[in-house]
Amino acid sequence: MTPNLNTASSARPPAYQVDPTLSGVSFLGTFRSEFAKLKALRTSWWLSIVTIGLGAFIAGAVAFAYQQFAGDFSTNALDMAVQGQTGSFFAMILLGSLGVIAITTEFTTGAIRSSLTAVPRRTTLLSAKALALVVWTGLTTVIMVLIAHVLTALIADPLGLGDIVTDGEIALMYAKTWLVVVLTVLLGFGLGTLLRSSAGGIVVLASIMFVVQIVLSILMGVTDGAAWVEALIQVEYMNLVEGFINPTAGEYAFFPVLDPGPAAVGLLVWTAVPLVLGWLSFTRRDS
């Protein structure tokens, strides 16, 4: 009996789809898997090592410069601690880029399909990735902050080694520095989830941190300090960072700086918008 060639040729294998009703791996198991992925990613190690090394170098350089020119100006322990954490600004862009790469590499390599096979619930998968990223970059930031403090305290007289635990203002400033870096990492993660492009996410992140500030500064001069430009400067990302971390930022800033409370709200909004948009994109678009 001759087979029906038309019927055979028209047969198509069913399209592969992940069943979202399956429970898949538990959240804890998913978190462990995502953390293991970060550990296996060489980029994670390199960016973390550079972050810690650069933070230590800048802290040492700032403290050494102060000791050399201490006769020309004086400062207190809190201001010295703030200056010693200047490397955190580089940590923001470096670890923020890691936040982008942590999700975009899965889209680039197609590994996201395997991840969704193991964890069909996309919100669970995305949350576990974000938590693993927070733990990794949070530990990196803690190491950077502590090393920077030790070097600054050993080199510069105004800051004492024990001030990190005896001075509440300094301890709070370090905690805020840690939080700002982690929020920037989540900002990068949200951009990466939304754009699904490493280059695009990193460029947008760098623009938010640096380019917007430059553009607004130019507009401030061109418009002779227009009120609407001043309002935009107040909610610009890095201006919010400065207002949140540094309690004396308003005394020396060229532009108006919000108080720590409103600045914290602004930073949360900056972080939440790309995260929510990225989550909507991840849960509703095909991978």
Automatic annotation (TrEMBL):
<dbReference type="GO" id="GO:0140359">
    <property type="term" value="F:ABC-type transporter activity"/>
</dbReference>
<dbReference type="GO" id="GO:0005886">
    <property type="term" value="C:plasma membrane"/>
</dbReference>
<feature type="transmembrane region" description="Helical">
    <location>
        <begin position="45"/>
        <end position="69"/>
    </location>
</feature>
<feature type="transmembrane region" description="Helical">
    <location>
        <begin position="202"/>
        <end position="222"/>
    </location>
</feature>
<feature type="transmembrane region" description="Helical">
    <location>
        <begin position="263"/>
        <end position="282"/>
    </location>
</feature>
<feature type="transmembrane region" description="Helical">
    <location>
        <begin position="175"/>
        <end position="195"/>
    </location>
</feature>
<dbReference type="Pfam" id="PF12679">
    <property type="entry name" value="ABC2_membrane_2"/>
</dbReference>
<keyword id="KW-0812">Transmembrane</keyword>
<feature type="transmembrane region" description="Helical">
    <location>
        <begin position="130"/>
        <end position="155"/>
    </location>
</feature>
<feature type="transmembrane region" description="Helical">
    <location>
        <begin position="89"/>
        <end position="109"/>
    </location>
</feature>
<keyword id="KW-0472">Membrane</keyword>
<protein>
    <submittedName>
        <fullName>ABC transporter permease subunit</fullName>
    </submittedName>
</protein>
<keyword id="KW-1133">Transmembrane helix</keyword>
